[in-house]
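Throughout this review, each integer encodes one residue's backbone shape. One record appears below.

===
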Amino acid sequence: MKQAVVIGAGIAGLAVSLRLRKQGFAVSVYEANSYPGGKLSSFEQDGYRFDAGPSLFTMPQYVDELFQLYNLPASDYFQYKRKETVCNYFWEDGKRFSVPADKQKFVEGASKEFNVPAEKLQKYLADSQKKFDLTAPVFLEKSLHKVGTYLSMETLKAFVQSASMGITTNLNNINESQIKEPHLVQFFNRFATYNGSSPYKTPGIMSMIPHLEMHHGTFFPKGGMAKITQSLYDLAKEQGVEFHFSQKVNRIIVKNGKAEGIETAEGLKEAEVVISNMDIFPTYKKLLVDQPYPKQTLAQERSSSALIFYWGVKKKFPELDLHNILFSKKYKEEFDYIFEKKSLSNDPTVYINISSKEETTDAPENCENWFVMINAPGNYGQDWEAMISAARENILKKIKNTLGVDLESLIATEAILDPRSIESKTSSYRGALYGAASNSKFAAFLRHPNFTKKIKNLYFCGGSVHPGGGIPLCLLSAKIVSEIIINDEL
């Protein structure tokens, strides 16, 4: 039986291990941490359970697909439900808006609340769907670095209509010209953060992202977000995938232009196929030190990172939904600080996830756990202690001013995740959440491929390579890798 080694047990590493196992490989996964999941993990502290990473679950069919490979019902491993309210939005001028999961109800509600013609919103969402439908089969579901991708009718249709996709302008310009109303412009600008970019830089084609949320819906898994990776890990173990935790890979063995295995502290592990789910930057800089590296790719601007406060709160707030966003008054300034000044705005947009709304075991009785995040720059050696202290003060002030909640006196326990710890725990270069930023119209083509022509039998998956970051795209990267491997084996 052919051997496959996967470096990293993030969600893409777990997914590719399941796909390769189905293809008949003996699969071994090596993970430096003592747990699976990468960014999509959880922890407990003082009686509170926190999801450590992503707080939004979309496109669950990509997870279900992995169980279907083995003719197993995903519901035997984890359950999820579609949220009726996607998110609550708050502005400091007193404007509030709850986004319903139903697209037509959103159009009706937003039209009334923001005095924008319903036809204008319907057209915007129709354009969003059109962009997604044209680009997803090419830019998300296939390798952009294989000739066959460009020899299909889907690709031809996408390129013929590329002029109408907003590639030559930025997302904010699209939203200001089509929507105009300031609150809704800010609302639609926010979708740039789904790939760690700035709405004032990322191309207008990113206006396709709302379609993911408003058409396909948002979901919450029973047991929390970490249950997604835990269920895949359980399935992989059942199917015979071997896991080696707390085992750091020191290098990828390359001989005569061909990957032949890995080296760990315990010795060599030979394999016919090696897949790195590690960030592409440290993969080259630490595991392939004697190999040439793609300078232009590794020099790309990094995506935003995050500063997260995990607060155990000694009270329940039934009026607040699972997901809540408190917008910044100076939105453009916030992104200028992140990408230009590599600093934090003193008026950040605050993302609050209150997961004990869904799971009573997430917090003690009559208490809640708050996942409170702001967008942050990557780790460039800033004075993080001073920045974190100032950010904490600003966040609590914003929560008090916007929600009328004096939260500080209610915090029973606290943990903090910042770009430094994201980098150290997940090997994400500079703590970037999505690898390279998508602030360039060429970003999709500049992302590292899922393979390298210079080293045979070496492949790459995860958020730092094609097609990008976030749970759905990481799962698609695993699928793309498995399909490339099948074709290479033929």
